[in-house]
Write a structure and sequence with these properties.
About 40% of the residues lie in helices and about 5% in strands. The chain is mainly α and about 120 residues long. A two-stranded antiparallel sheet has the order 1-2. The longest helix is centred in the middle third of the chain and has 21 residues, at about 40-60.
């Protein structure tokens, strides 16, 4: 678990460029590290983790604490963490991408990872 406290959220709003991730209140980021030795169990483990996070999100939502934020560095391949940054921040990312990577070199030559959507 990685907490982001109120001071961090507050200060990140005041730095040059602001907080592109849209984190404006305290939250706790949860990451799992699961290991297994049999490749035949891959689908079972992926399903277990999906079910686990559905339960975690439901529990957080039931007490009004689900931030809806997905941390890009811990994102699974079936997640869309940039989407959780909010419409305004995604717009900022798109404008920066058009300015600094107008030919979409990063988007086409770098395999994998999460890309700025709608480019």
């Amino acid at each position: 678990m990685q907490p982001i406290g109120s001071k961090h959220a507050q200060v990140s709003q005041t730095v040059p460029g602001g907080n592109t991730m849209g984190v404006d209140s305290p939250l706790v980021i949860v990451s799992t590290n699961v290991y297994w030795s049999n490749a035949a169990d891959d689908a079972t483990i992926v399903q277990y983790l999906n079910d686990l996070f559905v339960k975690i999100n439901a529990a957080a939502k039931s007490v009004g604490k689900n931030a809806g934020f997905e941390y890009l560095n811990y994102g699974a391949e079936d997640q869309d963490p940039i989407k959780s940054y909010g419409r305004e921040n995604i717009g900022r990312l798109r404008r920066a991408k058009r300015k600094y990577d107008p030919r979409n070199v990063f988007g086409t030559l770098v395999e994998g990872g999460f890309k700025v959507p709608g480019y």
